[in-house]
Design brief:
Pfam families: EAL (PF00563), GGDEF (PF00990). It comes from Intestinimonas massiliensis. One of its GO terms (molecular function) is cyclic-guanylate-specific phosphodiesterase activity. 56% of the residues lie in helices and 15% in strands. The strands form four sheets. Strands 10-11-13-14-15-16-17-18 form an eight-stranded mixed beta barrel, surrounded by four helices. Strands 4-5-3-8-9 form a five-stranded mixed β-sheet, with helices on both faces. Helix 2 packs parallel to helix 8, helix 4 runs parallel beside helix 6 and helix 5 runs antiparallel to helix 6. The longest helix is centred in the N-terminal third of the chain and has 30 residues. The chain is elongated, with a radius of gyration of 38 Å. The protein starts with 9 loop residues before the first helix and ends with a helix.
């Protein structure tokens, strides 16, 4: 609360005391600086900012009026009586109005995270009534002198209601404290800090005023209160996203936490703009930023009680009160329909699709972390799956629990070395031998059930654990090749993660592992998909060049999946191309599929590349590929992935068969 030290100057004037206005001038300068910073940036115009701006102007007006009142009272003989009456009346009115506006601002901050606005409406009525009482008494004072008057000599005289302003402020303070403690679970950390800081600072300044009555500190107390509120709530870095002007991620976290603490019912719509990079490429980054601003503005103004936040680079969260199933469904459909229409910015017009997830809290005993986990997992599913919108219901919660269990399984299996490397032999058409193999990672859960690589590999990539898994594979492969037990096995191919390619010591670690096990670099092949290449092509070019110089060779993996293109074959040092199994779905029965595979094999051979064909499962496929001169064939028709001991037996049996 700001403290009004009323024009209790009567006794001082009578005693001939002179007051120092230096503190008032300091307060005036400080308030002007706050106003300058307040209007310096084009921040989003919110109810909070409008109220604070009004508080600043009323504070500055109060300080200026107090200064003028002191000057005119001390020079009463030379100032017309009506001037003194008007100035002091204006001061009594503006000072209480300033305190009332500050009280309303604090009520707003206390109840900002409470959807039930009944308490705020009651506070407005009480504060308005108290302010109207002050206005009525000020007007009554002009004829009665119940607040102040001037005698025949021009001396200031206090009336019986001179301290009415203190009474009004005390009543507003009591209402604020009552509201604060009643709604404390929903009060933000910033507001808690203000309530802990502002009263002690004001009290210290008031004590200083009592010790040094000649130094007026009215304006200083007011300015310090405004400064504390500015630091707590008006700095853009605290809660605003600098680009869009809406709340940032931290602000969203705080909002969710307070809503949950207050057991409130709310709806969250979290959305991610799909392929927004295309907008930047087409219109430029400046236009892309402008589109983000327009989207943020639309979301923030979609509903009066709604609040929008920038959750990530191209992700936004919309927080709404939950009133009913029908209203919630309507809000979600409004967002869905908007992102099915184009966005226009000047001459630029484009469709910006979005993937959405919805979370509804109807009093569930969630923690902030659980709610955010659920939201992020729901958005992850929306991005990965065919559905553009995912509702965070029981199914998503169960999927999240399974994901957490799988993540714990991966981490524990890394610690306990539970991962196993299996090998799929690759058939060499020219010799009829199995002279190479691909290393594949395998995992079982604690009940001995196999966990598909298609399940744990994407999660390991997403969480960064793929790096450790890739090193496990490299170590096991080098140990196998260096052991000398794999009869006829010349080479083994492995996959490395993008994280490993970003390791500045990758070349040293790979060659070190080979040397430690006595393996020639030419026996290790590294498979790379173009999906990995495109993440940082220049870095990949550099690392591939370094490893190639050491003798390690590379395979372009999964050619034909929609990522790979011929420029990669021409520009990078690939020794071999691996055709993806998807190309064999209709081969050789379908004429066009047969022609495509034949053409690719012929093309790569003319370019000097050797080819491995994956996914060979039938005799017809094997015969057709051998007829088209494929170099190697890999698939279940020839051999399934095998654990190391079975691989050694397989290779030994083959070598014995060939010897006969």
């Amino acid at each position: 609360m700001k403290i009004q030290l009323t024009a209790a100057v009567a006794e001082r004037v009578v005693s001939g005391m002179k007051w120092s206005l230096s503190a008032e001038f300091f307060a005036c300068i400080l308030l002007m600086i706050l106003l300058l910073y307040f209007y310096e940036r084009k921040w989003a115009v919110t109810a909070r900012r409008r109220m604070y701006g009004l508080c600043l102007w009323l504070s500055l007006s109060s300080v200026i009026l107090n200064t003028l009142c002191v000057v005119t009272i001390q020079n009463a003989a030379r100032v017309p009586l009506w001037v003194n009456l008007m100035l002091n009346s204006a001061y009594f009115l503006i000072s209480v109005l300033m305190c009332s506006m500050t009280a309303l601002y604090l009520f707003y901050l206390i109840l900002e995270h409470v959807y039930d606005k009944g308490c705020l409406r009651r506070a407005r009525r009480w504060v308005s009534a108290l302010t109207l009482i002050d206005l009525a008494v000020v007007l009554w004072n002009l004829g009665s002198g119940v607040m102040f008057s001037f005698d025949a000599m021009g001396n200031y005289q206090r009336g019986p209601l001179n301290r009415l302003g203190y009474g009004i402020m005390a009543a507003e303070l009591a209402l604020l404290l009552l509201c604060y403690f009643k709604n404390q679970p929903c009060v933000s950390r910033d507001m808690v800090r203000v309530m802990r800081t502002l009263p002690p600072v004001a009290l210290l300044l008031m004590l200083f005023q009592l010790l040094y009555p000649e130094l007026l500190l009215n304006g200083t107390i007011i300015a310090m209160a405004d400064l504390i509120l500015f630091l707590g709530f008006q700095c853009s870095s605290v809660e605003q996203d600098s680009l869009t002007g809406i709340g940032n991620r931290n602000s969203f976290y705080q909002e969710i936490s307070l809503r949950l603490a207050g057991r409130q019912r709310f709806q969250v719509i979290l959305l991610s703009l799909h392929h927004f990079v295309n907008v930047n490429q087409r219109f430029g980054h400046a236009a892309g930023d402008a589109f983000l601003y327009e989207i943020a503005r639309w979301l923030d103004h979609m509903e009066p009680e709604g609040r929008a936040f920038r959750f990530g680079n191209v992700e936004f969260a919309l927080l709404l009160p939950w009133e009913s199933q029908e209203k919630g469904r309507s809000s979600l459909e409004t967002v869905q329909r908007r992102f099915q229409r184009t966005w226009t910015l000047g001459d630029a017009e484009t469709l910006i699709p979005a993937r959405l997830t919805e979370l509804v809290c109807r009093g569930q005993a969630w923690t902030e972390a659980q709610a955010l986990e659920l939201l992020e997992h729901g958005l992850r599913l929306a991005k990965q799956g065919p559905e553009e919108t995912v509702e965070c219901g029981e199914a998503v919660w169960e999927a999240l629990e399974r994901r957490k269990e799988l993540l714990e399984l991966i981490r524990r299996s890394i610690r306990e070395r539970r991962f196993r490397v299996w090998y799929q032999p690759v058939y060499r058409c020219g010799t009829g031998a199995f002279s190479s193999a691909e290393a594949l990672l395998r995992l079982e859960d604690f009940q001995g059930r196999a966990v598909p690589p298609s399940v744990f590999i994407p999660l390991a990539e997403e969480t960064g654990l793929i790096d450790e898994l890739s090193w496990i594979v490299l170590e096991e492969v080098c140990r196998l090749l260096g052991g000398g037990q794999a009869a006829g096995l010349e080479t083994v191919s492995i996959n490395l993660s993008m994280q490993q390619f970003m390791d500045p010591d990758l070349t040293g670690r790979v060659t070190g592992c080979l040397a430690r096990h006595g393996v020639s670099p030419e026996r290790l092949k590294i498979e790379i998909t173009e999906r990995v290449l495109l993440q940082d092509l220049e870095r990949m070019r550099k690392v591939m060049g370094e490893l190639s110089a050491k003798g390690v060779r590379f395979y372009l993996d999964d050619f034909g999946t929609g990522y790979s293109n011929l420029s990669s074959v021409l520009d990078l040092p690939f020794e071999c191309i691996k055709l993806d199994q998807s190309l064999l779905v209709a081969f050789p029965e379908d004429r066009r599929a047969d022609m495509l595979v034949h053409t690719l094999l012929e093309l790569f051979h003319k370019m000097g590349q050797r080819v491995v064909v994956e996914g060979v499962e039938t005799a017809a496929q094997a015969e057709g590929l051998r007829r088209y001169d494929a170099d190697w064939l890999q698939g279940y028709y020839y051999a399934r992935p095998l654990p190391e001991e079975r691989l050694l037996s397989f290779l030994l049996d083959r070598s014995l068969t060939e010897a006969r």
